[in-house]
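User: Batch of two.

Assistant: Item 1 of 2:
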Amino acid sequence: MTDSPSSPASPPARTGVFLGIAAYTLWGLLPLYLRLLEHVPAAQILAHRVLWSAFLLVVVAVLFRRLPAIIAAVTRRTLLLLTATALLIGANWLVYIWAVQNGHVLDASLGYFINPLVNVVLGVVVLGERVRRIQGAAIALAAVGVAIMAVSNGGSIWISLELALTFGFYGLLRKVAAIDALGGLLIETLLLAPFALVLVLMTQADGTGAFGHQGVSTDVLLIIVGALTAAPLLLFAAAARRMPYTALGLLQYIAPTLQFLLAILVFGEHLRPHDLAAFALIWAGLAVYAVDVVRAARA
């Protein structure tokens, strides 16, 4: 019996698995890179992330002759949706960078752990999707975990919730925007680019800008951060075309798991008893959710 193109054992699917693992591994290890830029304000890192990723994405779109198709896909409705997603992803990136720089990688990983369950809730509330009983149980377990974090460590739970909610709404709006991953990210970064450019020019003018003032190594790191923004998404888009989307969704736990390990083993953040209890409940919810997803896919 030969494998179908979407079968997990087929060659395209195996390639997709490797591409997906690469994408989520890059996302998971990003805190290591951002720590190299801890001497640069988070807003400036975000500005350079936007500008250099916009430049790279334009180059990619030109090389692969995608610009005409991207321009054709930009209707008024799509542009409005991408304006909203640009604001959401900008807020997400800014808080994530700030969290890494200020010793909250654990809180950031929590945000991305609960994001899949936030997606389920948004699907039910906004899109009118029906939630299966086992999915409801998964959400309830995660909700109890978040509540424990909020009560015992309310000062930083906002980081987790902001990351989960902004990325959840970002995914929801991108789901209904009629444009592919490359085109969507290109338009989003171009929409953010004028604001990023103004910030960079203002900080350069008043002498507080990092670029060109803190050594060649800092300049190179700020340029490369653009590639580290675009590369994982392009890898993700390539993986999504080669493997079942359900299976790809299960790979998303690689990134927050790596962030969690970095927080504990590399950055020395403390996992207190209530943190462990909260994470255990959230992991239990995710395990229930993952089992349900696999069962539904097989059915």
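Item 2 of 2:
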Amino acid sequence: MKAIRFLFWFWLVIGLALMLFYKVPEPLGFSNGLFLVFFALYALALEQKASGGVNKQLYLRALLVGAFTFVLEWVGTETGWPFGRYEYSETLRFWDGGVPLAIAFAWIGVMSSGVLLSRASNRITRAIQVGLFALAFDLVLDPVAFAQQFWIWSEEGAFGTYYGVPLQNFAAWFVTAALLSLFYPLQEGGVAEPGSVYGEAVRLYQGMHAMFGLLAFKEGLWGPFLLAIIIIVALEGGLRIDRSKQKQNVRPSVSRL
């Protein structure tokens, strides 16, 4: 857990600094895709911790999510459904051609972090929450990825665009994440205290938004930049309110003793 936490944050800080102030050197081009692998592994490590230890079903589910979304992305690049017409550049690839394997890892990270952030007590409400977490993430990510040419949109789509990205793409992200969440077991209500899985999942989600928010700022994408700030602040406010409530609940219990 400590190793993957360190790798993720180290990769994020170094990679972000390079992309903001210089560029990722060509020999290190593989590092863009590798970052998404670390994102998935970190989110999975948190999910495993939340489940109480090694869980074979957790990794089998991650494998199925990765395989399903990889195929869905391949269908998207071939047919334009459900996300719209687009193609991947070489930026995220470990080898030439096809959908980058890193995209499957990105979806695993999105799903695991979204499930950990949800506080819902039933699957339907959680599906909506996870879909919204995925949607919020993509509203910041996709315009930046398009501007940085991680992938290239070739058509506007039937319903218009958001910073050059077809609106149907965002609907597809919401629906895909919401449906996939139904295969995850319900988690107990997250504990907001420092060091908790829920608190660390919040930091992970905030970190991803901070990175893409700053890249949005560099590209002059003010909508995604402001949205990233709003999401980070909203999650921080919710976390602090939860911690305050927990402290208030603990004090009466202690006084009775």
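Residues 222-256 form the longest helix (35 residues).
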